[in-house]
Amino acid sequence: MKSESTAERILGSMSSESVSTRNQEWWKRSAIYEIAPISFQDSNGDGKGDLRGLIGRIEYLEWLGVGAVWMTPVYPSPMLDFGYDISEFCDIDPLFGSLADFDRLVGELHRRDIRLILDFVPNHTSDQHAWFNESRSSRANPRRDWYVWRDAGANGGPPNNWLSRFGGSAWAWDEQTGQYYYHSFLVGQPDLNFRNPQVRAAMADVLRFWMRRGVDGFRVDASAVLAEDELLRDDPPNLKADESTPPPQRLKRIFTDDRPESMLYLEEFRQVIDEFDARMLAGEVQGKTDRIGHFYGEKKPRLHLPLNFALLDSPWDALSLQANIDAYLKAIPDKAWPCWVIGGHDKKRIASKLGQAQLRNLAMLFLTLKGTPFLFAGDEIGMEQVEIPREQIQDPFEKLVGGFGLNRDPERTPMRWNGERHGGFTSGEPWLPLGADLLERNIKRLRDDKHSLLWLYRHLLQLRRQEPILVDGEYVPVRSRNDILVYKRADRSGEMLIALNLVHEPRKLHFEGRGTLLLSNRLDRASGAVECPSLLRPDEGIIVKLAH
Ligand code: GLC
């Protein structure tokens, strides 16, 4: 009896420990849903979404089954760059509501077990920020060194050849104090000087401010560009560039991107995150897959989840996908937790690239690969790029570097809640058009159809909760053949096979053993035995629990 109760005690403490690890690491289990509040739901008829509107839509998020919301910036801002030009880090722009609305949002989300992640934009402020006003007021101002100021180059022009991502020199002349300041993005987005410890301390306090208000994590904006080369060495030409390359990409960003110092600053942010319980740090990293690994950290941890865009960038065929998945998993450290992004406010809607029929495979793929899935509001209803008439263009990228297909408005258009006027998004004039396919693709219509893409998302998100193997199980590659992408997830309890037919024709699937169908992406097959060979219909993907 006695030893039994000891065993029970040990078991009991083990399970409570694992429960607490699970809670600490909620971001491994949760699908993360990016929302640009300006495009989600308007509550006051000004044509732009706001926090009250979002609060009114939490029921939908719960129904869908996402575990966390990542919100793009809602801080005070002149809104030159979709709110990424921040004039006050610890407040809410009246366009979106108030701090009281924000607190309500946190409470309402948490009540439904949904976490909240904020965008954290450390690299730059708006030129309207009080810090910058002080900094530019005189060379002697104590905040002068909070930004990157330099004398003119030898010829009287900018200090070197660095280019702004949004076009032109990255240096802007300040008449009053007779120096240039550095801006990686817009002239109205001066870069903070991260070499200054006071700046780092101030930004650490911004993180603490929001974590004390209950925020569960952050997505660090432009995390690779926090520091630039101290010697101001000029960037070399990009030899692959030609006339069709947007001018800002005609130099290779050797001395402005991914400098070793930026990594140290990420380590400092991570330390601040770890002062609090169960928080998460994700981050936007520039560059291709081979540059992701070190963002996780080496001796010291950096980001929990450097965002991985490999699925968005991959050609859509079984062999390319199996290669790109493999390359990414090899590029991250052994113990690192993967993540998979299929959409975002800077990325073209993938629906326009893959076509509607393959979106079901995409959903099944990124929700069954090992790692944290990220989607952008509207991906679950197959929203496509919306055509923006010239006079309605909002994105500064397109205005400044026009004609290269860089406009980000087409993916940022408002959410469609129903097929009525302006999709139920606003009673006023929407800030961007809703798109011609509103009647075909809106939440109400797809929610009413139990075989829709939206319901597939809901089923997959439910399955991830019911089958821990889909979260914690190992990813086991299988040789993909016959246009079918195949892999397994495995743990001590067993194995699951995922097979996705990536062409619009039927294909025969060969696999070892037999199993039970858990889900077909068409949502029209009853669960039942699956034997080898098995016929997959055009564009069909299945999840099979293997019998041993
Ligand atoms: C990031 C954001 C992008 C913004 C830029 C400047 O890349 O994702 O939307 O324009 O930073 O802040």
Structural summary, described in words:
- The protein is α/β, with parallel strands linked by helices and 548 residues long.
- The chain is built from 16 helices and 19 strands.
- The strands form 4 sheets. Strands 9-8-7-3-2-1-11-10 form an 8-stranded parallel sheet.
- Strand 13 (484-491) and strand 14 (494-501) form a beta hairpin.
- It starts with a helix and ends with a strand.
- The chain binds alpha-D-glucopyranose (GLC).
- Alpha-D-glucopyranose (GLC) binds next to loops.
Number of strands: 19
Uncertain runs are 1-15
The bound ligands are: alpha-D-glucopyranose
Q: How many angstroms does the end-to-end distance come to?
A: 36 Å
Give the mean pLDDT.
Answer: 95
Based on CA atoms alone, the radius of gyration comes out at 24 Å
The total of helices stands at 16
Strand content: 5-15%
Shape: globular
**Spatial strand sequence of the major β-sheet:** 9-8-7-3-2-1-11-10
Largest sheet: 8 strands, parallel
| Helix fraction bin | 25-40%
Class of secondary structure makeup? alpha/beta
